[in-house]
Write a structure and sequence with these properties.
The complex is a heterodimer of chains A (124) and B (201). With 124 residues, chain A is an all-alpha fold. Chain A folds into two domains: 75 residues; 48 residues, no CATH class. Chain A contains five helices and no strands. Classes of the chains: A mainly alpha (124), B mainly alpha (201).
Chain lengths: 124, 201
């Protein structure tokens, strides 16, 4: 039969004493631990919703950044004319129903502008 | 690198959770924390020598484990929990040291950095009446006093291995060191404790 070594004996004794002191914890400490544990587990719900939000926020941010980047990289549409700065009236034209027809004939109007002609009129 | 740490380090997968899975995970976490909390409190209390501070440290460790590692496989929770707790204890000692330095600046005597040991300087939380003192387990008090005199890493290794019962690999994860270091720290701790407590303790 093996007898415990000094080291094993010390470990065993230390463990027994420690377990005894754990069992002797008072009610106040146990109550506090109980409350803290429940609060921590409840925090799991909060962290999950936070994780969900934290996933959506960067995802939508990345998507928006990608759209902006695509527009910047693509640059203005080259229609053969100097478009100049965009004004509010340009937006009105774009919003207007008739503007779709105008957009289809954009090349014609560009040529018209370059040649200094009025539709149905004469040069210069 | 040892197998325990390697296996732990690569386990970055989080277990998928559904509605029912979340409920089950909450139950698992609750059960795990209920099993570990009392021993964790005593370990923290021995380390910082203050019941209230120890309770705060355990509370922080619980919250951090649930928030950051609740989705990890449950077999990883014990070393992770103790790693969080040991980090908390270490930070507590640092804060105590800074606080002591500030107090020394304002003229409190006897607070030099090198010699200062927050554990040794803290008031005894078990300040009991003489009657209680007589009834208290003197052996445990001697053990606690001896454990407190150990260098920090030896104290951590000894408490995790002996009090908590973690294996060498788990202790290595909790301490953030190699298994070889754990064995060395434990061996030195046991040697010192045997000297301090005596063969007949």
């Amino acid at each position: 039969m093996n007898t415990p070594t000094k080291r094993e004996g010390l470990e065993e004794r230390a463990k027994q004493l420690f377990d005894g002191s754990v069992d002797d914890l008072d009610a106040a400490a146990l109550s506090r631990l109980n409350r803290d544990r429940h609060a921590a587990v409840e925090a799991l719900q909060g962290s999950r919703s936070a994780v969900r939000w934290s996933l959506w926020v960067p995802a939508s941010g990345i998507a928006a950044a990608a759209i902006v980047m695509a527009l910047v990289m693509r640059g203005p549409v080259d229609v053969g004319v100097d478009a100049g700065p965009m004004t509010a009236s340009d937006f009105d034209i774009l919003i207007d129903d008739e503007s779709f027809e105008m957009l289809e004939e954009l090349e014609f109007y560009s040529w018209l502008d370059a040649a200094g002609l009025e539709p149905g009129g004469n040069v210069g | 690198m040892n197998n325990g740490i390697a296996a732990f380090a690569v386990s970055c997968t989080r277990e998928p959770t559904t509605g029912a899975g979340t409920l089950q995970r909450e139950r698992q976490l609750n059960r795990f924390l209920a099993e570990i909390e009392r021993r964790a409190l005593r370990i923290a209390e021995i380390a910082v020598r203050d019941r209230d501070e120890a309770l705060d440290l355990v509370q922080d460790a619980m919250i951090k484990l649930v928030r950051s590692y609740g989705d990890r496989p449950h077999e990883e929770w014990t070393p992770l929990f103790y790693r969080i707790l040991q980090n908390g204890i270490r930070d507590w000692h640092r804060r105590q040291k800074v606080r002591n330095r500030v107090m020394a600046w304002f003229g409190r005597p006897g607070a030099r950095d090198e010699d200062y040991d927050a554990v040794a300087q803290a008031p005894d939380p078990l300040a009991r009446t003489p009657e209680d003192e007589l009834q208290a387990d003197q052996a445990m008090q001697r053990l606690e006093a001896a454990v407190r005199t150990l260098p920090r890493r030896q104290r951590e290794a000894f408490m995790l291995r002996t009090f908590e019962g973690l294996d060498v690999a788990g202790t290595a994860v909790a301490m953030g060191c190699s298994e070889g270091s754990v064995k060395t720290h434990c061996s030195r701790a046991m040697h010192t404790l045997r000297e301090k407590l005596g063969d007949h303790w």
